Amino acid sequence: xxxxxxxxxxxxxxxxxxxxxxxxxxxxxxxxxxxxxxxxxxxxxxxxxxxxxxxxxxxxxxxxxxxxxxxxxxxxxxxxxxxxxxxxxxxxxxxxxxxxxxxxxxxxx
Amino acid sequence: xxxxxxxxxxxxxxxxxxxxxxxxxxxxxxxxxxxxxxxxxxxxxxxxxxxxxxxxxxxxxxxxxxxxxxxxxxxxxxxxxxxxxxxxxxxxxxxxxxxxxxxxxxxxxxxxxxxxxxxxxxxxxxxxxxxxxxxxxxxxxxxxxxxxxxxxxxxxxxxxxxxxxxxxxxxxxxxxxxxxxxxxxxxxxxxxxxxxxxxxxxxxxxxxxxxxxxxxxxxxxxxxxxxxxxxxxxxxxxxxxxxxxxxxxxxxxxxxxxxxxxxxxxxxxxxxxxxxxxxxxxxxxxxxxxxxxxxxxxxxxxxxxxxxxxxxxxxxxxxxxxxxxxxxxxxxxxxxxxxxxxxxxxxxxxxxxxxxxxxxxxxxxxxxxxxxxxxxxxxxxxxxxxxxxxxxxxxxxxxxxxxxxxxxxxxxxxxxxxxxxxxxxxxxxxxxxxxxxxxxxxxxxxxxxxxxxxxxxxxxxxxxxxxxxxxxxxxxxxxxxxxxxxxxxxxxxxxxxxxxxxxxxxxxxxxxxxxxxxxxxxxxxxxxxxxxxxxxxxxxxxxxxxxxxxxxxxxxxxxxxxxxxxxxxxxxxxxxxxxxxxxxxxxxxxxxxxxxxxxxxxxxxxxxxxxxxxxxxxxxxxxxxxxxxxxxxxxxxxxxxxxxxxxxxxxxxxxxxxxxxxxxxxxxxxxxxxxxxxxxxxxxxxxxxxxxxxxxxxxxxxxxxxxxxxxxxxxxxxxxxxxxxxxxxxxxxxxxxxxxxxxxxxxxxxxxxxxxxxxxxxxxxxxxxxxxxxxxxxxxxxxxxxxxxxxxxxxxxxxxxxxxxxxxxxxxxxx
Lengths: 109, 815
Ligand SMILES: Cc1cc2nc3c(=O)[nH]c(=O)nc-3n(C[C@H](O)[C@H](O)[C@H](O)COP(=O)(O)OP(=O)(O)OC[C@H]3O[C@@H](n4cnc5c(N)ncnc54)[C@H](O)[C@@H]3O)c2cc1C
Ligand code: SF4
Ligand code: SF4
Ligand code: FES
Hints:
By secondary structure, chain A is mainly beta. Chain A has one helix and ten strands; from the N terminus they run E-E-E-E-E-E-E-E-E-E-H. In chain A, strand 2 (about 15-20) and strand 3 form a beta hairpin. Chain B starts with a strand and ends with a helix. Chain B is about 30% helix and about 20% strand. The interface between A and B is large, with 53 and 45 residues.
């Protein structure tokens, strides 16, 4: 897997998210209250809302458009809603964040 | 065989004990130590600093021990070179010593912030006895000290210096203390306890420079603040001391790389202690270092030994007398994890156990840590806790006990805590009345004490007090909880925020015993609003708890773009303003421009990245944010009134503009739309607004509680006032009453229905003291609220919201 550096953990506010633009679309990168990081496609399974703009609580985000709650770990909608969004491999090394687009690129190709 | 050890800290000290026990006499041992002393218990430096112990009491191996075991200790000798060819080491005093086996145990060095002034006299680190002696000397002045770093070391240093009589401020870069070991809830409790001892704590403090001429005079923060100090202690972290090994050509990464048998890349050289890196981990607590010591000794005794170091989480504790804190493992939450939270607000206790597959993976305990060892044990042994899940959090001794009383928060309130704000009734009075007069129903309590007899927002609390006082004899009506994180309703939460003086979200969640560690998307925005409303100037708005529109000050649209609506005071505009808008539309290619129902202009379809530039151009033309996205004051529609209309009775346009200029920027429970019509023909449609004014010959008829959305409802008439000044005062007071009492997202008409029109009229029109009180509080809060969020963002605030953090090209992605 090849990793691309996208900046440092502190670029993202706690309980917040930032976007990464990629040829395959926007990716939302989240940082929780406890400094766990996650990356998922910035595209709500409901009607495509930008998940990066939602409120982050625990390891989940609430979509800003119609309040679906999406698990950051699995990309699945929680509760009564059904649907899921692709998760992107992410790792932290010495405070620097890396994501891997290999999986996404394979599927796109 | 000749064994040479570089560094005489706790790790090699322990290693020697093992070695002397299992193979006495095997090695001829020589130690070089840069510190001019024997092996002492570094952990206990904090009690030495606070005066609870002295140096002699913390020595581990006295001089006699070295003599008895035939060990040569060079005190104050720093090794400056290792020659691996010749197998010798050389000290800074010129001693050259040959070895057969060499151990590097050079520990860590404190991380010194790379800021100007970091070498001034009076800047210390906190690592060894010399540092402690220097601090004790500085403390004799009883002057001001700043500790940079709110982790374990920094807080112990701060507590010690405070005990020595210094005036101490802790600067911490992150939002909560000890964030690597504690979750924010426990961090909040810790901060409160530290502050209770008189130590000031500033979080999110970014040190820019240490100022002073030769000697330290203060610390300058990035926001320009200067904290005066004659002593600055840097406790911002440590880094493994691997320089010497690196120069000798040994493999290093973060630390000196060793295998699980503590061998470096040179088979005759071992490394152990904080300078060693095993399996990608470096360590800063003694438990794993002692494990390294055991393994290294085994390999020194028997080259074929299978002893191997395995990684284990070590619990962290803070050694500050009176503060009980325990942290272990991974306590981040996640979907595959479950958390059990116990909060006892009155006792200041917070406990959280994080489970994965019914096994403990992390624990945070605050206030009561006796069960730390038990949790650690369950975690280490990976015990399946399914059977004791319900009682796990109560600890080992409590297995089988009953859960905590949900009424505890109310029971713990002091007698003088105000329960009913409208009538100023405190807890003691209510409890007294219930007991003396044998009151058993809510109506009785209302009749006798007036509590809950006005706006009714304290009803839930009064009922809980009745339960606490009467026991099972009273059964209160169920309140709808705010969300799944609490059993309390909105009204109770609002009252308790005031009664207990809770001034941040973590404080609310702790003191009101939230069952989650970080809330949810329902309660966080509500709590943020309540705190903004109740503590103007004191509470720092938590933007991460706001919905996106309020966070970026624009309206998100269905395709993820935004719309921007600048204020047009009272719906009046000019050629200059229109031209500026037209220019912005052209420049940014804005696809849709539309006139809104609130008499202003909406530009739709703007990319998020463009927002600051759009605002900058609008700002130059004099526009400020229209808050079209806010739970706050939106528009004040007007008609042309006496300026132009032949029916006009008053200057309706002027009053509308005046109201809007007075009230813009204020946050409210839900959106507030207003209108002013110049006569009863009502061209501004004031009678379906949250607040409306109908001008008549004799003055101004104030209307409120209308609706024209999902529900349609004509306004109620609050009353008639004679002057424009009075109209403004009444409207402001009315909105402030609503701000203070309503539930988050509750529009004025719903609130008014609950509280009753009569009660509102009584407080706003009839009771002048009340009216002025509301008015004054609104005016005060506007000091902090009436700032144009757009110009703040044009000047760079929250830059991170508007830019992607990175852009990845085709090449990177395809790699
Ligand atoms: C104030 C304080 C409080 C602490 N509290 C706790 C606690 O509560 N719990 C806990 O588990 N841990 C605690 N620690 C951490 C613990 O003390 C360390 O992890 C442990 O002491 C490290 O042992 P070591 O042998 O690796 O290194 P050290 O004890 O740092 O020893 C390294 C020694 O090597 C010497 N040296 C360095 N370079 C050379 C050279 N080139 N030549 C010769 N000598 C050299 C140094 O002078 C030093 O004496 C605390 C530390 C401090 C400073
Ligand atoms: S409300 Fe009355 S004063 Fe205002 S424009 Fe209409 S008719 Fe004229
Ligand atoms: S009426 Fe409905 S569709 Fe139209 S702008 Fe309002 S919320 Fe959107
Ligand atoms: S698009 Fe996310 S909830 Fe509708």
